[in-house]
Amino acid sequence: MRSSKRNEGKRALVFCFPILLVSLSLASCFSREDAVLDKTVLVVNAHEVSTREFAERLASKLRDFDALHAKDESSLDRAKEDIVHQFVLEFVTRDFATAQKISVTKDDVEAKARDVRSSYPDDYAFRRALADGNLSIEKWKRDLEFSVLQKKVVEAVTEKMPEPTEADLKADFDATKTQWQQPARVRLRQIVLEKEDDAKRIMDELEAGKSLAALAKEFSVAPEGSNGGDTGWLDKGTLEVFDQAFKMKEGARSKILKSPYGYHIYELIKKEPETRLNFQDAKAKIRARLMEQRSQTLFSQWLEAQVRKSSVKRNDAVLRAIKVSTRGS
Questions:
Q1: How far is CA 49 from CA 230, 239, 281, in A?
Q2: Nearest Cα to 39, choosing from 14, 60, 20?
């Protein structure tokens, strides 16, 4: 998702057909020539993709292109081919899920949504990010639904994949010893407020003997507030506002500190110096990484095989007719 600053100085992009203009904005500002927009541009197995659907997805892809790059024929052709490939992969995945009776429930999507939203300091920041990306909640949740479905399909395809042996793990550790440096880290209990005045009032209550954990549960706008402000372990360099904690003694409290997320007050629960992990400490991480690599390789091979077996029909005349021109913002 782009910040509003990245939008400055850019010119609006529009798709140009011989008889219509289609806005590259996801606001779907289409002309009245719906007959052209509803024309089938791609058929993957039994799934049809209209020009409208293709244009919307291409518009989303080109959002981060400047006008000159977007108008370049070779760049535009590559973008179109990427979108064709995206649709093929999506339909192949959905067909397999249907055949294997793999489904995504509303609860699955809501759980994923909560997980994503928890990475933002508050609901306003989350909705601002959606607005900056011209994404509606509905479109965002549709994308989440496919993300969850794809994960379930990957798990189904790779469920019988053998785990790495002890010898595999040891060989990888020996080859990557320099990577197993554990940076210095701290564990904090914090409260984050939107306004400095609120932070000052909380500081007064802390100095009067109130518990930071209790105040965090009641007032913090950060995701860990519901857990009494416990951040878990944070590596040095995670966020500038936390780096002062590495100079504090365990049990000490910070002053009011400002970051892009608000005004922080935290207490240092525990800190650990930089260390080098031994094989036993690193083994779980190595196993997870090797399993992820093997899973990606196996799934990619499976996906390529499914794509080769698929029926893909393109309306190349319509695809070639999609051009990009610039229009004053």
A1: 47, 44, 50
A2: 20
pLDDT at 31 over 70: no
121 pLDDT above the threshold of 90 = no
Specify the 3-state DSSP secondary structure of 3: coil
Cα-based angle 204, 210, 215 (whole degrees, multiple of 5): 90
Q: Which residues contact 297 (CB under 8 A, 6 or more apart)?
A: none
- Which whole-number Å values give the CA distances from 156 to 159, 278, 299, 302, in the listed order? 5, 33, 10, 11
pTM of the model: 0.60
In angstroms, what CA-CA distances link 73 with 70, 82, 145, 320, 321? Answer: 8, 14, 33, 10, 12
- Burial category of 112 from C-beta neighbours within 10 Å (exposed 0-12, middle 13-18, buried 19 and up): middle
C-alpha span between 232 and 175 (Å, rounded): 30
Nearest to 201 by CA among 253, 256, 124, 267: 256
The pLDDT of residue 20 = 33
At which residue do the structure tokens 């024309």 appear? 39
Cβ neighbours for 316, distance < 8 A, ≥ 6 positions apart: none
Please state, for a pLDDT cut of 90, what percent of the chain lies above it: 61
Most trustworthy range by pLDDT among 5-14, 23-32, 164-173: 164-173
